[in-house]
């Protein structure tokens, strides 16, 4: 290249380089703003995740308390069912006993006296 031609292009190349530098600076500035916005969004998301984690932990504890309460209630229900079955068996036994007593009361009086005499409960007094 000719030294004159090169020196004539230097101001033009310098202007082109400055224009490219200006464009690069604008892109860098935009990227910086984008990074700041993303950083802000990430911080907001992180605090939302922390809040959701704390809420989930609180729900977990509440669920644990409800589960243990439910287990205790189930235990009480099981005990009550066993007691109910025992009481039903006892009631059935008492009803059968009452039915036997009722049958005994429905017998004629003379049969009851006869039976008692056979047992010796009402033995005839001895005449001396």
Secondary-structure map with pairings?
Layout: H1 3-106, H2 109-119
Overview of this protein structure:
The N and C termini lie far apart (173 Å). The protein is 90% helix and 0% strand. The mean pLDDT is 85. It is an all-alpha fold and 128 residues long.
- Our Rg estimate from Cα atoms comes to 52 Å
Main beta sheet strand tally, sense and closure: none
How would you sum up the global shape?
Answer: rod-shaped
What is the distance, rounded to the nearest whole angstrom, between the alpha carbons of the first and last residues?
173 Å
Overall pLDDT score: 85
Instruction: Please report the total strand number as a whole number.
Output: 0
Give a concise summary:
The chain has 128 residues and is mainly alpha-helical.
Search tags:
2 helices; 128 residues; mainly alpha
